Each structure stands twice: as structure tokens, then as C-alpha cells.
Amino acid sequence: MKLKQLEGLLGSLEQFYNPKIELEQYPTGSHVASRMLYTAENSFGDVTNKVVADFGCGCGTLGIAAALLGAQHVVGLDIDAESLEIASENADELELDMEFVQCDIRNLRWEGQIIDTVVMNPPFGTRRKGADMDFLCVALKVASEAVYSLHKTTTREHVRRTALRDCHASSAEVLFELRYDVPHLYKFHKKKEVDIAVDLWRFVPKKNR
Amino acid sequence: MRLLTHNMLSSNIKGVTNGFPLRIEVEKVVEKSVDFNPDFLKNMFAKIEYKALVEASRIMGYAELPDHAEPSMLESDDFLRKFHHALMELHLEEGTLVCPETGRRFPVNKGVPNMLLHEDEV
């Protein structure tokens, strides 16, 4: 599938109609999502035929992108039942087979090493401090091959340090910097649209944990 | 929820040491066809808990998987297809997953398990 085609399909997905600010619910735009998964597969072979988990899947955008690129089994995890409903509908619309589990990522207990790749657009930690790193640490425990994640460019050194020192990453690489456009979603948003600089990271977990 | 996902889920209640596998109570099973991918299946065979898969598939109404399996059986197309069917094509649409240690019930609705814990379980 070509990048443009992937981006187009992702652009047609339903998004949050009643976003919950305390969960930092923001849609992952089709521009960012398509590039993220396309790179994961084309540069690293981390998607096609693999088992992929989308942490904090929201409306399912990243997981759906993985499924469109031929992941064999995709599981989306989120704490919010409404988002999972939308995500299920989105997957059905595209006739994709995607699994969902409702849970709090902080007390997830996953058995075995079945998940190859974790993809995520985690909360940035603006509402609940440290949320972004909670997500990252769990992702690195669960993934056997790689974790792809988005974090604000302003937190780059903090993310790198925490990943390597506290979350047992054997490597942490910024693949590229993107502009993430945040639409006017919440009442406290003053501007019509704002774009913030985010880094797309690829982390590799340590093998013997 | 297909059985490949069930094979990854463990009871996440605080203090539980034997939370896997979750016991399945069926209300509704749905079968959904998935493309047969032998390489993927061989890869999965090495990673999953086979015994948990057999038990789960029987509860879901599929009795074709042998009790015990060796890697050499992966050369048999017949076994591979049964393995494929059990692992990938049987979905628990409605039912419950039960923690084997505490008996706590996690509901499954429209194929989605709800593993959210109460405050005292965290």
C-alpha cells in the first residue's frame, strides 16, 4: 500500500466526538499516523505479519494503520469504553480484524512474549504528570522487538534518559521530528489550531528482562 | 476476543500470582475467517501456552486440537489448520473471563474484555 493511500484511509476514520480532557484524548492525525507506521514497516519490518499492540488506542488510528499494512494480529488497548466503541466501528468500516481490550495501562499484566511491536501516541503528561513515561515503561516491558512512540520535542532529553535508565530500553532513537496539528478540541484552546513539534521515537527493549 | 489474545491476558489484581490463564465462560462464540499464514502460525506456536489454548478452544466448542503438541507436528497441514482455527478464528463475543485465583469476573461484551480494576484491587 502506498503512503498516500494509507493516509487517505486513515483520514476517513471517525474521531472522538466527546473527548475527555483528563485522558488527554486527541486524535492522531492521518499525516502523522501514516508516516509512523509506514516507517516502522519499510525501514524496520516491524509491522507486516507481526503481532502489534496500540497502547492508548483511542479511536484506533495507529492500530488500524498497522492492520492496513498487514500486521497479522492487532490489539488496541484503552481505558475508555466510548473510544473503544468508535475504534471498533472504525475497524469494521474498513473490514479489518482488530482486537480491543479495555484496561488501565498501568496495571496491565501481559503473559509471554507474544507482542512484537507496540505503537502509541501516549498522553503527553499535561494532565496527569508522568503519564507519558508510564506508557513507555509498560510498552518496553511488553514489546519483544520495538516500541514506536510520539513525544513532544521539548521533552527529548528527558525521554531519552528515562527510557534508557528506568525503562530498560537498549536503544532510543528519534526517527524524525513532525508537526502534530492539534485541532481546537477543548474549550480552553484559544487558537483555532496549533501545531506542536513532536518526535517519533523508536525504542528497542533489552532482551533479557 | 480471539484465543491468541486470551493467551496473553492475565489477571492483573494486586497480589495474584496465578492469574493465568483466565477461565472462560461462554455466552456467545462467533467464528471469523482469517487468511491461513503458516509462517506466522509456526512462529506463534513457539510463543504461546499451548495447554491454555487447548482448554480454551474446548470451552469455546472446538474439540479438534490434540491435548499435546510437538514442534514436529507443525509440518502437518492438518494440524496447522486446526491450530489456525483455534488460535485465530474463534471469537468470544459475549461471556466472562474469570481470575483462576480470586474468582473475580471480567466481562466480555461485543468481543471486548473489560480488565479495569476497582480501587481496592490495584
UniProtKB/TrEMBL annotation, chain A:
Keywords, ordered alphabetically: Coiled coil
InterPro entries referenced in this protein's UniProt entry, alphabetically: DNA_methylase_N6_adenine_CS (IPR002052), rRNA_MeTrfase/Polyamine_Synth (IPR051720), SAM-dependent_MTases_sf (IPR029063), Small_mtfrase_dom (IPR007848)
Domain of life of the native organism: Eukaryota
Domain (Methyltransferase small) ranges: 48-129
Coiled-coil region: 84-111
Pfam family for this entry, one: MTS
Family label: Belongs to the methyltransferase superfamily. PrmA family.
Identification of the protein by name: Methyltransferase-like protein 5
The species this protein was found in: Coffea arabica (Arabian coffee)
Phylogenetic lineage: Eukaryota, Viridiplantae, Streptophyta, Embryophyta, Tracheophyta
UniProtKB/TrEMBL annotation, chain B:
Pfam families per record: Trm112p (PF03966)
GO biological process: rRNA (guanine-N7)-methylation; tRNA methylation
Entries under SUPFAM superfamilies matching the protein: Trm112p-like
Domain of life: Eukaryota
GO MF terms, alphabetically ordered: protein heterodimerization activity
Family recorded in the similarity comment: Belongs to the TRM112 family.
Subunit structure: Interacts with TRM9.
Protein's name in the database: Uncharacterized protein
Taxon lineage: Eukaryota, Viridiplantae, Streptophyta, Embryophyta, Tracheophyta
